[in-house]
């Protein structure tokens, strides 16, 4: 069981720091207590720690059976607001490698500061992240008061990069290649295994990309209305325009004016399906659907796999998303 580390939002950073300090103290005590403790940190036998599902899955595909891969975000947990227990942070400091994407999970970004920089891989650069689109209703035309309210909820911050790279298979492939390159450099004896595994994974991603391109080529509407703005990279790759109801952060609450703007867009663009998500409260998607007569369907941003997920891994869920989009957008 994890300790109930659930402080209010504004105290989250302080709590993470306290947990981090406790973990460092524990690690230091361990090092003092035994002559071998310090030297075992980060050796080849210790696991590769990943931050959340898409990075875990890509790392597992690259590694195969060659190393243990663990994940900080439990299945079913909403990853944006992850909080780390002291043992999570302790595990990071002992990991052979920590793989994460900077700017997605503030608690991980902070804890990474406690890990030896030589044992950290940030995949954000490989994913070629770009700033979140400014045309989400939570970001556009909001008053200074709304801005403050929004910023309080949105820990990605304004102008921050959109982290949802895995929903574009080509960006996801680039991340897998970066993970493979790093693991090969750290462990040259297994480089050919990593290269072979990565080639298989990249080929599967390429097939998926082809299916998405063909399946989404001819659609009645290319306007996509989603709950949180997770699908901008997917939208950009396959010719859609995304409007996220709550902006980038699933926790943000859109204003009445923002909801009205989305409803107007739904009507003017001929949108007939609003997409809710598996890990996000569907309230706002349903509000917009009710006011416009649109249907609600579930599109999965694949931030975690649960028993409710339609598919047991990234590929299955992406194909389920493809079927949902073809139906919802009227693609032929
Ligand atoms: Zn997200």
From TrEMBL:
**What InterPro entries does the record tag this protein with?**
Bact_metal-bind_prot9, Lipoprotein_PsaA-like, ZnuA-like
Q: Which lineage?
A: Bacteria, Bacillati, Actinomycetota, Actinomycetes, Micrococcales
**SUPFAM superfamilies xrefs:** Helical backbone' metal receptor (SSF53807)
- Family to which this protein belongs: Belongs to the bacterial solute-binding protein 9 family.
Give the Basic and acidic residues compositional bias ranges: 136-164
| Positions of region (Disordered) | 132-164
Question: What is the name of the protein in this document?
Answer: Metal ABC transporter substrate-binding protein
Record-linked PROSITE patterns:
PROKAR_LIPOPROTEIN
Signal peptide start and end residues: 1-31
Organism this protein belongs to: Terrabacter terrigena
Keywords (alphabetical) are: Signal, Transport
Show the Gene3D superfamilies listed in the entry: Nitrogenase molybdenum iron protein domain (3.40.50.1980)
